[in-house]
Design goal:
heterodimer, A: mainly beta, seven-stranded mixed sheet, 11 strands, B: mainly beta, six-stranded mixed sheet, five-stranded antiparallel sheet, globular
């Protein structure tokens, strides 16, 4: 139980375009989901906490207008990287917390901006 | 502010050995501690979840212990196999959010 599905796994986009990443909880409801960014050979950096039906909470230094988060249902949160630039290239991972299993993570999205 | 440290940063051992990965945290006021595995370019796979009231959890060849008062956890891997090669991350859940260590990169040599 407690499976989180993340899509797409890889995406390449042109500089200036926007990219949407989806995170779904498949067998449980998640009122809160989390978005992380991971740099090569580094640990995960929490970007924002996504709250169902309300605004996301962003960590210090994370641009709200750059990384748009929408959590419109109890099973889906989306992260949109707007006007992407090469420095936004990274590995993005979402997670959700389920009482019995703790935190469950998606398989991640490798974003490359060219 | 919670800080999580994992030692060693990297470990390479021959197949079949038993090994211990260490995790320490500065604030003992935690709800739980979780060990994850991450393969290159992949997401995180949860290995073991230890609630703050528990001392240890076991799953197959893995055993994780928690000493909340001293701010320490260990992950014990028995009879290591090449397929165990990955980065192992510990994370502690406090009042606000999950805080990760930097990970231990484990290589099991055939």
């Amino acid at each position: 139980g407690a499976v989180v599905s993340q899509h797409p796994s890889r995406v390449i986009c042109k500089s200036g375009t926007s990219v949407k990443i989806e995170c779904r909880s498949l067998d449980f409801q998640a009122t809160t989901m989390f978005w992380y960014r991971q740099f090569p050979k580094k640990s995960l950096m929490l970007m924002a906490t996504s709250n169902e039906g309300s605004k996301a909470t962003y960590e210090q230094g994370v641009e709200k207008d750059k990384f748009l988060i929408n959590h419109a249902s109890l099973t889906l949160s989306t992260l949109t990287v707007t006007s992407a630039h090469p420095e936004d290239s990274s590995f993005y991972i979402c997670s959700a917390r389920e009482d019995s299993y703790g935190y469950t993570f998606g398989s991640g999205t490798r974003l490359t901006v060219v | 502010k919670q800080e999580v440290t994992q030692i060693p940063a990297a470990l390479s051992v021959p197949e079949g050995e038993n090994l211990v990965l260490n995790c320490s945290f500065t604030d003992s006021a935690i709800y739980n501690l979780q060990w994850f595995r991450q393969d290159p370019g992949k997401g995180l796979t949860s290995l073991l979840l230890i609630q703050s009231s528990q001392r240890e959890q076991t799953s197959g060849r893995l055993n994780a212990s928690l000493d909340k008062s001293s701010g320490r956890s260990t992950l014990y891997i028995a009879a290591s196999q090449p397929g165990d090669s990955a980065t192992y991350l510990c994370a502690v859940q406090g009042a606000q959010k999950l805080v990760f260590g930097q990970g231990t990169r484990l290589t099991i040599n055939p």
